[in-house]
Amino acid sequence: MSISATAACRPEFQLKNLTTNESLYAASLNEYHRRHWDNAITGFEKLTTDLPARDSLLPRSYWYLASSHQHQDEFLLAAQSFSRLVESFPDDSLADDAALEAARSYSRLWRKPQLDPSYGETALASYNTLIGLYPTSPLIPTAQKEIADLENKFAIKDYDAGMYYFRRKAYDSGMIYFKNVLAKYATSPTARDAALRLVESYKANRYRDDASELCTQLRQRYPGDSGVNKVCTGVPNTVTVTAKADSAKADTTGVPPIKPPPPTS
């Protein structure tokens, strides 16, 4: 008998044959491990409506329901089920894991920085829920790294918007977005590029003091950087306060993020 014929003879997953919550859970978990995601979703979804609120199987049912949706690339449904676990069972051992997976599912829904960032904002809120509710969780370093990646997508979105105006020589409009990158996402990889375009915008508009101040910060943060050297050629450093200079020499932790420039009058 062929493999396909054998598979066709396999008994189907039938809810009507599973008369107790325990048998339905066991059968649904078996379908999950066999990667039969549709059957697992059907079973665990029924369990989330049938199980008593205090049943220990309920948070696990939410977990496997959400995970099955993830495997189907149904990230919104996955995020909602993970979030339901956190909201309903905040003290469960799976709660911090569920908070992280909810954030990840929302983040996957924001596929490109150029698209509507609503899901990205919801993902960021979910990451912050994890950090706020479970500050001692071993998942916190992972969440912080993924927050940084997510914030860089926000930075790219603002940077691209600024570049739209920059290319059209509408420098004042572009500066709004470049400044926003520096104000909100100063430690992101995109911050350097935003700062360079901001210097070029200052130079184009002859905002010499602003260009000087920003180039001073860039030279301190990115010493020897060829892009900084090129953009800031001919732009003098601002006068530094001796106390700040002495403090910088004593501090071995590195140069702080670029300070957001003040609004241009």
Short note summarizing the structure:
With 265 residues, the protein is mainly alpha-helical. It has 13 helices and no strands.
What's the rounded overall pLDDT mean?
Answer: 88
Note poorly predicted spans: 1-10, 241-255
**Rounded radius of gyration (Å):** 26 Å
Given helix and strand content, the structural type is mainly alpha
Commentary on this structure:
With 265 residues, this protein is mostly helical. α3 runs antiparallel to α4 (57-71) and α4 (57-71) runs antiparallel to α5 (75-88). The protein contains 13 helices and no strands.
Blueprint of the fold:
Blueprint lengths: L2 H6 L12 H13 L3 H14 L6 H15 L3 H14 L6 H15 L8 H16 L6 H28 L3 H14 L5 H15 L3 H14 L4 H6 L10 H9 L15
Helix pairs in contact: 2-3, 2-4, 3-4, 4-5, 5-6, 6-7, 7-8, 8-9, 8-10, 9-10, 10-11
Structure characteristics:
265 residues
